[in-house]
Design a protein that fits this description.
Helices cover about 35% and strands about 30% of the residues. The radius of gyration is 16 Å and the shape is elongated.
């Protein structure tokens, strides 16, 4: 079994209204000194097998086809 974590974030320069709302909410809650907030998403995926190269290739394909909108998002894969 191979475990992986995929982190998807917006590319620099892409507007992030949810991140901006979080930033304002943190300020309203009294958290001073919070700079820019960018939101993203995390996927924890378990794959059968032990071939790490195949797992990484499959995970990349998953990101390219479904998990990330590569026009506006970046993704990073970490194998556990």
């Amino acid at each position: 079994m191979i475990k992986a974590r995929i982190t998807v974030t917006l590319k620099n320069g892409v507007l992030d209204p949810q991140g901006k709302a979080i930033e304002h909410a943190l300020s309203a809650l009294g958290f001073d000194g919070v700079g820019q907030v960018r939101q993203g998403k995390v996927f924890d995926v378990e794959l059968a097998g032990t071939d790490r190269a195949k797992a990484e290739a499959d995970l990349k394909a998953m990101c390219e086809k479904l998990l990330a909108n590569t026009v506006i998002e970046n993704y990073a894969i970490t194998l556990g």
